[in-house]
């Protein structure tokens, strides 16, 4: 069944009857959308909110139409690129008319000051609006600044003087507040269906950006012992999703805490995702998150995963090396992903260093990012995926991302390591046990050993990412699978030498 969640409204509700708009594909000119307000105490129906969440039991898939139709009246984005607020009484929303590329950004009349005697001029037919981002991008190409007039007709400014920008950017000037339709599919192993998850928190975070519909969360509970019936049970749900509308983005999360290292990963992924193939193929971008099981820790499983990613047309995949974790551990990473990628519109690969930096994962897990290389030849040695490992390093506890033992295995001292040598040109650090009796206490002279040492070498191709705290940061390591043994060497202990 579908549960339309109730939201705490901090902004008014859009009413299509009071809007004037056009889609850019019509060729007509719509200068702004005037929005009015419903009183905050007015009860808002689930149909008006149109933020849907579907829970799919393991034994039944009884569905009710979700009615998530995408209306053509509102602009592509519903929130101003400056203040990030939506509708309010008497506020006008101006949609950028730049079409190369098609800009989705909008600006509200609170953040630009249009002279009252010019309001009719800027709304007349043929007037085009250029947003702050597109203006600065064009002047950057020209190599010099120019006054910002905002409204133009036939390439000439409509206003006699420059347009005053009264708002302040809360995010990057390249950001947007996107409201393109998003479908979230959460596959949960049977037995964990009642547990609140990071995906639930992500859905709730996104909900405020979709006051007019276009966001849907579907939870699918699967039982690996009944996998043969899975496709039949999914048919009704998939048909319902296909009848909704075309989702521009699909986010898939697989929470499987019972991963078997001997499992056939391509077969598992095919069984899970084949019923959803049509949904995935209709989207412009699909991101897969793998929680639990640490598939990437096993060479054959990791190889099978990469094969499955390519065969199912998944744009990006994020996996974790931790075999045991608290589900809440990934909440910050998912919320940052939702904000940076789904809302602000940055590509996942460009945003990922900032995402892991704000994730709070630290020593809990390394992160693997795999993205499809546009136009890549699938027969190339490296394959069609760009794969990168992100790991957290600390100058004294995890040099170059390699964890030092908490206890000296030779003398038993805790946190005993001290740095004795560092060659930063070779990215090499040597640590030695600080206990003077290490290898000597309670031993005969002939049995005495030198203090325990560890030589830590930076992984090949590693790069330290900015933004870390004192003595700690994330490292970015490209994974090269063109060599036959590359898959067995990326998670081994070859980066630390024990002496």
Structural account:
This protein has 499 residues and is an alpha+beta fold. The chain is 20% helix and 22% strand. Strands 2-11-10-12-13-14-15-16-21-20 form a 10-stranded mixed β-sheet. A 4-stranded antiparallel β-sheet has the order 17-18-19-22, with no helix packed on it. The radius of gyration is 27 Å and the shape is globular.
Separation, N- and C-terminal Cα atoms: 61 Å
Q: List low-confidence stretches.
A: 1-75, 378-382, 484-495
Residue share in helix: 10-25%
How many β strands by DSSP? 22
Beta-strand content bin: 15-25%
Helix/sheet category = alpha+beta
**Shape label:** globular
Order of strands across the widest beta sheet? Answer: 2-11-10-12-13-14-15-16-21-20
How would you characterize the largest beta sheet? 10 strands, mixed
Question: Compute the gyration radius: what is it?
Answer: 27 Å
Mean pLDDT comes to 78
Count of helical regions: 11
């Amino acid at each position: 069944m579908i549960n339309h969640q109730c939201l705490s409204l901090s902004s008014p509700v859009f009413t299509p009857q009071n809007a004037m708009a056009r889609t850019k594909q019509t060729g007509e000119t719509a200068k702004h959308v005037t929005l009015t307000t419903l009183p905050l105490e007015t009860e808002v129906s689930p149909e008006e909110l149109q933020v849907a969440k579907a829970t799919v039991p393991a034994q039944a898939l009884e569905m009710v139409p979700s009615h998530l139709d995408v209306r053509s009246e509102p602009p592509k984005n519903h929130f101003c690129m400056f203040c990030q607020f939506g509708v309010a009484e008497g506020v006008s929303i101006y949609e950028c008319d730049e079409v190369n590329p098609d800009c989705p950004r909008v600006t509200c009349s609170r953040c630009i000051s249009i002279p009252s005697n010019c309001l009719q001029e800027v709304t007349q037919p043929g007037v085009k609006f250029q947003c702050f981002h597109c203006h600065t991008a064009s002047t950057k190409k020209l190599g010099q600044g120019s006054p910002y007039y905002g409204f133009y007709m036939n390439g000439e400014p409509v206003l006699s003087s420059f347009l005053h920008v009264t708002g302040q950017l809360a995010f990057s000037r390249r950001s947007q507040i996107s409201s393109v339709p998003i479908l979230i599919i959460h596959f949960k192993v049977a037995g964990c269906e009642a547990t609140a998850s990071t995906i639930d928190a992500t859905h709730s975070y996104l909900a405020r950006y979709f006051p007019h519909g276009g966001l849907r969360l579907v939870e699918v509970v699967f039982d690996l012992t009944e996998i043969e019936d899975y496709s039949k049970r999914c048919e009704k749900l998939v048909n319902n999703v296909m009848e909704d509308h075309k989702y521009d983005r699909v986010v898939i999360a697989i929470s499987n805490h019972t991963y078997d290292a001997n499992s056939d990963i391509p077969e598992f992924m095919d069984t899970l995702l084949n019923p959803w193939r049509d949904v995935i193929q209709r989207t412009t971008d699909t991101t897969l998150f793998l929680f639990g099981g640490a598939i990437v820790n096993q060479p054959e499983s990791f190889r099978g995963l990469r094969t499955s990613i390519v065969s199912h047309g998944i744009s990006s995949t994020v996996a974790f090396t931790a075999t045991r974790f608290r589900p809440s551990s990934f909440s910050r990473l998912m919320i940052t992903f939702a904000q940076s990628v789904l809302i602000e519109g940055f590509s996942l690969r460009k945003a990922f260093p900032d995402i892991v930096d704000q994730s709070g994962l630290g020593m809990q897990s390394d992160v693997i990012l795999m993205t499809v290389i546009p136009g890549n030849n699938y027969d190339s040695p490296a394959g069609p995926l760009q794969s990168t490992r992100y790991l957290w390093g600390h100058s004294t506890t995890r040099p170059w991302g390699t964890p030092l033992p908490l206890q000296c295995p030779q003398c038993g001292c805790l946190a005993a390591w001290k740095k004795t040598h560092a060659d930063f040109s070779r990215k090499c650090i040597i640590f030695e046990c600080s206990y003077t009796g290490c290898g000597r206490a309670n031993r005969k002279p002939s049995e005495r050993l030198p203090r325990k040492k560890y030589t830590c070498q930076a992984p090949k191709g590693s790069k330290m990412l900015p933004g870390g705290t004192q003595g700690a940061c994330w490292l970015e390591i490209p994974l090269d699978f063109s060599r036959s043994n590359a898959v067995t060497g990326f998670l081994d202990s070859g980066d630390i030498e024990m002496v």
